[in-house]
Design goal:
The protein has about 725 residues and is α+β, with helices and mostly antiparallel strands. It has 16 helices and 36 strands. It is elongated.
Length: about 725
């Protein structure tokens, strides 16, 4: 029988354990750990520079320089350069301009600062306004993205801290003299002009090092608030710097914890906590002046362990929310592109780092990573050597896995990048690239539903596979023969290509069920176990082409498109007929993942299907070989056989821009893959993959050179 003291111990331990879990849970994730280290380093740099900004009354200059970085960052982004170098150049130009204009006697220095502030900010806005693709980057520039801090950024911050510390130590005496009496500093031979330049350089270093973490609109708060709060606790410059660094560090920890649990912007929350620390310090200082120092520091201690406890309860550790064994959770989508040539060689391009990984057949580990600038004709080994080498005719992906078909077999490749959507939030993961295995398309189990039959290999000249879709339990690969193969998704996650069964018809996982459209036009919603379910009306004659959108599963039919969706817990189907009697039809859909706007090739034109508006639109264009769109409000991207990429207004059908992308006639069946920021197009002849800024006049942002001809391409990580 438990004594009262034991019960108290368990209760107190449970409460304290939950409190500790609440406090430390965010820091179990790798990208939050990097954010923590980044924030601590930035706090130290800002403490060294911000103390002098506060003491010398340079706040306006600091604010102006923080905003004056915009032109340099914009130009660096436009040219594909390092944003930090662009920011440093812009800040240096700003500081030099202030120094030159301040020498005049016709107006005060703050006038020069204000003029340059407005001029630099206006220049940056003009540059940004000329390129729509800066929209996302500009948000990060203004408000920061502390959760996107990389390991290399931490080394930059360490270097900045070392430089700032050296400047602060060597220039301390001159800075003090300059602050209180510039003429006295000159008399003592401390060279006040040089000291002022060094001090401005120190502020520039702090701003440039910090803007990636909290952005230009918030860096001023982190630069000013902790030192201003520290002034309430000491009047000695070195102590103020140390206390400011401590307050900045606590603001970083508190901001990250609050941001994690409240779902707020991390950089802005850190800056808000830092500013809040100033007001708390001011309040405590005012109270201290009234009631004395002893009354302020009196705090009650909370016991963590009850008296007389004889046993310590064991608390079972649980994995943090979103934990995936063997994977690293990241702060942003880890987009990758899987490409393959006709001989079966496979490469995976990391779109963030630019590295290219060769996938070796029969190996569970990732291949060799190469920089994206590797020249064609390199010496990377072919992944399918010896008896494994087969011709590849088709490739599809389900967001993580790529399924490469030779017609008679399917090779499964784990791209090592995927997103888990929980509705109100998402988790982004990264893992090693690896081959999962190869299965025979015609030997994958028996169909347990109506219309069971064998799955024959792809017909001569076919693609073998035409679609892949998955949920937490099932992954379905749709064959161009009209059948589907179901894989066990947990087994795939574990590295085993284990098939469950095959189904005669287009089978797509949706809402914890399987939507099946067979050749007879029958559309049925089955259970995941294959058990017969609800038959949907109207029918879908000659089903061909499928997609999954936020509004349901779309199946292409001879008379239009059938949308199968879950509404109020019930599965319903609705037909979107073609606008008029037509012999042309859409038979293979492309779209941005999650978008409700689909595109498809037709004869001498392209089709656009808007699921939300329930409308079809046909745009006439000759020799189109690939089409896609980012969704509502975005242009249609159409590649024609002559290698020209066209941007077409989806409403009027008029061409808005064009880019000569591929030299000569296009070979094979190219792919246009679209994500929320960029489009990717494979060029087999040139052995390259082009990255297109589709909202910036189809600008070619990057080109990835490969050692194989990327005849097939699939984007993953979305």
């Amino acid at each position: 029988m438990l004594h009262l003291t034991s019960i108290e111990t368990i209760i107190i331990f449970s409460i304290s354990s939950r409190a500790m879990d609440w406090l430390f849970a965010p820091f179990e994730v790798a990208f939050v750990q990097r954010a923590l280290w980044g924030g601590l380093l930035v706090s130290c740099v800002c403490a060294l520079a911000g103390t002098w900004v506060v003491v010398r009354g340079m706040a306006f200059l600091g604010d102006a320089m923080a905003h004056g970085m915009l032109p340099g960052v914009a130009v660096a982004a436009l040219l594909g350069g390092n944003l930090m170098i662009g920011a440093a150049i812009s800040c240096t130009a700003m500081a030099a301009g202030v120094s030159v204009l301040s020498r005049g006697k016709r107006f005060a220095p703050d006038t020069a600062i204000g003029l340059l502030f407005v001029g630099m900010l206006a220049t940056g806005v003009i540059i940004v306004s000329r390129s729509q693709s800066f929209a996302v980057d500009l948000t990060g520039f203004l408000f920061g993205d502390v959760l996107a801090v990389r390991a290399v950024d931490l080394w930059y911050l360490v270097a900045a801290l070392v430089v700032a510390l050296v400047v602060a130590v060597l220039g301390h005496r001159a800075f003090v003299a300059l602050t209180f009496d510039a003429r006295k500093a000159h008399t003592l031979g401390l060279r006040p002009k040089l000291a002022h330049a060094a001090l401005v350089g120190l502020v520039t270093l702090a701003i440039v090092a910090s803007f990636h973490v909290v952005g230009t609109l918030l860096v001023f708060g982190l630069l000013i608030a902790p030192p201003a709060a520290a002034v309430f606790w000491s009047n000695r410059v070195p102590v103020v710097m140390a206390v400011a660094a401590l307050i900045g560090g606590l603001s970083t920890v508190g901001g990250l914890v609050i941001s994690w649990h409240a779902g707020t912007a991390a950089g802005a929350t850190i800056a808000a906590v830092a500013v809040g620390s100033f007001f708390v310090s001011a309040l405590i200082s005012a109270v201290r002046e009234r009631v004395g120092r002893v009354g302020v520091v009196a705090l009650a201690a909370v016991p963590l362990v009850g008296c007389g406890a004889t046993e310590v309860p064991v608390v079972e550790e649980t994995a943090p929310h979103g934990f995936v064994a063997g994977a690293e959770e990241m702060s942003e989508a880890q987009t990758r592109v899987v490409v393959a040539d006709e001989a079966g060689a496979v490469r995976v391009i990391d779109l963030l780092s630019g590295e290219v990984t060769a996938v070796d057949a029969g190996s569970a580990e990732s291949g060799r990573a190469q920089p994206h600038s590797s020249a064609p004709g390199g010496t990377a080994p072919s992944p399918n050597s010896g008896d494994q080498k087969v011709s590849t005719v088709g490739a599809v992906g389900d967001g993580r896995f790529a399924y490469l078909s030779s017609g008679a077999s399917i090779q499964v490749v784990d791209s090592g990048a995927w997103t888990v959507d929980h509705g109100d939030h998402r988790h982004y993961y990264k893992a090693p690239v690896r081959e999962i295995g190869v299965i025979a398309a015609a030997d994958s189990g028996a169909d347990t539903g109506p219309g069971a039959g064998s799955v024959s290999p792809a017909p001569e000249g076919g693609r073998g596979v035409v679609g892949a879709y998955s949920d937490a339990a099932v992954a379905s690969v749709v064959l161009d023969s009209g059948a589907s193969i179901l894989f066990d998704r947990p087994a795939l996650d574990g590295g085993v290509a284990q098939t469950q069964r095959r189904i005669e018809g287009i089978a797509v996982p949706y809402a914890e069920r399987i939507v099946v459209a067979d050749s007879s036009g029958r559309v049925e919603v089955r259970g995941r176990d294959g058990a017969a379910g609800q038959v949907q009306a109207p029918p879908c004659p000659q089903p061909k082409g499928q997609a999954v959108t936020r509004r349901g599963v779309v199946v292409g039919c001879a008379d239009g498109a059938l949308v199968v969706a879950q509404r109020e817990g019930e599965i319903v189907a609705e037909k979107i007929p073609y606008p008029a009697q037509t012999s042309d039809r859409a038979s293979a859909f492309t779209h941005r993942p999650g978008s409700t706007t689909l595109t498809a090739l037709g004869r001498d034109g392209v089709w656009t299907l808007d699921i939300r508006k329930k409308t079809w639109t046909r745009t006439a264009i000759s020799d189109a070989v690939a089409v896609n769109t980012a969704g509502e409000g975005s242009p249609l991207l159409v590649l024609t056989r002559d290698g020209v990429l066209h941007g077409i207004d989806p409403v009027t059908g008029t061409e808005t821009t064009r880019t000569a992308l591929i030299a000569g006639a296009v070979e094979g069946d190219p792919v246009i893959s679209v994500d929320p920021e960029r489009a990717y197009i494979n060029d087999s002849r040139a052995r390259t993959v082009h990255e297109i800024a589709y909202n910036d006049n189809l600008r070619v942002a990057r080109t990835f050179s490969l050692d194989i001809a990327p005849s097939l391409m699939v984007e993953t990580g979305l």
